[in-house]
Amino acid sequence: MFLIFLYFPISDDQLHNFLTNPLRVPNLPYVNTQEVNPHFEKSQDQRPTCRICLKTFSSKGNLKSHMNIHTGDRPYKCNVCGQDFTHHTVYRRHQKNYNH
């Protein structure tokens, strides 16, 4: 399986709009995800969803981090080598692998 990340430049206002106005994902043949997997806490239409690629997330914070992919923001920067990252987990992995 190949994943393609597309870069779509968007303004801060557009990003705020994406994060504050949840997108309604079309209903699936079942009423909600809990009918398929009772361990799911939220149905598909209640989960924060990226309006650009339609990926759903368990929290607004995860969606906000994901939006860095689309905006091109790289808020995590290595103090040693200067490389920057879109997500804190990738930054921490870099620090661990290169003993930074």
Explain the overall architecture:
The structure is a single chain. This protein is mostly helical and 100 residues long. It has a domain at 12-72. 35% of the residues lie in helices and 4% in strands. Strands 1-2 form a two-stranded antiparallel ribbon. The longest helix has 12 residues, at 60-71. The protein is elongated. Residues 30-34 have low confidence and may be disordered. InterPro entries: Znf_C2H2_sf, Znf_C2H2_type. It is found in: Nucleus.
Structure keywords:
mainly alpha, two-stranded antiparallel sheet, 100 residues
Order of the strands making up the biggest sheet:
1-2
Strand portion? under 5%
| Radius of gyration from the alpha-carbon trace, in angstroms | 16 Å
Mean pLDDT: 77
Order of helices and strands: HHHEEH
Q: Structural class per helix/strand content?
A: mainly alpha
Largest sheet report: 2 strands, antiparallel
Parts with pLDDT < 50 across at least 5 consecutive residues: 30-34
Shape: elongated
Task: Let me know the number of strands.
Answer: 2
Q: Helicity range of the residues?
A: 25-40%
Number of helices: 4
CA(first)-CA(last) distance:
32 Å
Mind sketching the topology for me?
Layout: H1 12-20, H2 33-36, H3 60-71, E1 76-77, E2 84-85, H4 88-97
GO cellular component, one term: nucleus
InterPro entries: Znf_C2H2_sf, Znf_C2H2_type
Subcellular location: Nucleus
In short:
This protein is mainly alpha-helical. 35% of the residues lie in helices and 4% in strands.
